[in-house]
Amino acid sequence: MKRWDCDMCNTDIEVADDYEAEICCSGYMCGCYGKPVNPVLCDKCEEQLFGKSIN
Ligand SMILES: [Zn+2]
Ligand SMILES: [Zn+2]
Questions:
Q1: Under 8 Å between Cβ of 5 and 36
Q2: Least distant ligand from the CA of 31
Q3: CA dihedral 51, 8, 44, 3 (to 10 degrees)
Q4: 9: domain range?
Q5: The pTM is what?
Q6: N or C end of the chain, less CB within 10 A?
Q7: Distance from the CA of 30 to the center of ligand 2, in angstroms?
Q8: What is the distance in A from the centroid of ligand 2 to the CA of 28?
Q9: What ligand is nearest to the CA atom of residue 7?
């Protein structure tokens, strides 16, 4: 595992060693807004995004 920042709130989290953020483009004139196409989120943001499906 290696340290990373949550793509939503920049909290320190851990991701798999082989994780690489894939950027589509700078976000100019594109719906990706320059964000990674495979964002990693902390538990909090994941909960917010997907609802509290996990206890
Ligand atoms: Zn793009
Ligand atoms: Zn977060």
A1: no
A2: 1
A3: 140
A4: 1-55
A5: 0.69
A6: C
A7: 23
A8: 24
A9: 2
